[in-house]
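Hello again,

I reread your note about wanting to compare the complex against the isolated chains. To keep things tidy I'm splitting this into two emails, and this first one only covers the full assembly. Below are the input lines as submitted, including protein chains and any nucleic acid or small-molecule components. They are followed by the predicted structure of everything together. The single-chain runs will come separately.
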Amino acid sequence: DAGVIQSPRHEVTEMGQEVTLRCKPISGHDYLFWYRQTMMRGLELLIYFNNNVPIDDSGMPEDRFSAKMPNASFSTLKIQPSEPRDSAVYFCASSSRLAGFWNEQFFGPGTRLTVL
Amino acid sequence: GDSVTQMEGPVTLSEEAFLTINCTYTATGYPSLFWYVQYPGEGLQLLLKATKADDKGSNKGFEATYRKETTSFHLEKGSVQVSDSAVYFCARTWGGSEKLVFGKGTKLTVNP
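Full-complex prediction:
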């Protein structure tokens, strides 16, 4: 398997623009997580899905952030409008309670977002 | 709430030195405990885990023992290598969910 795939790997945008980050989880995994990593705040869970349904979005910072999972193989995290404080590395991870991988999350390589 | 506290870095060691990175967790419920490692420019990957008290997780020469009496899960390695330079994260499960709560990470640099 190719692992968790994220795109783009790097994104530079200007304040006020819409940003869309994409994630393809590992095939067969039924959980998908979005994280944000910054030096100041460390690794923060933004939202996670189970079987394409959002389970916990309490970490989403504000209404400017939204996430969707239209099917089992694709998810998006959208920021509209973007602000400089959104600059961070955004990770997607997936997991499955099947096959003994209880709670083991597989992370993608991340998207480094810079908002100017 | 459920949380994890790990020692602040950075930690700098010489090759073949002994490594300990401390991690303690809040004693709520019966969490599973994890160590993840993040190499430069990459996502996190699972290093080892333990699911109940007194379990020892091990991988690539790293070990950690689930200590319920001290609510600790310290990471150890007897002889570090330059290739072990990375950021290490301690984590626990949150309630009975698939959520993980991560510590802030400890950056390890190993010099030749």
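For quick reference: The mean pLDDT of chain A is 93.

B.
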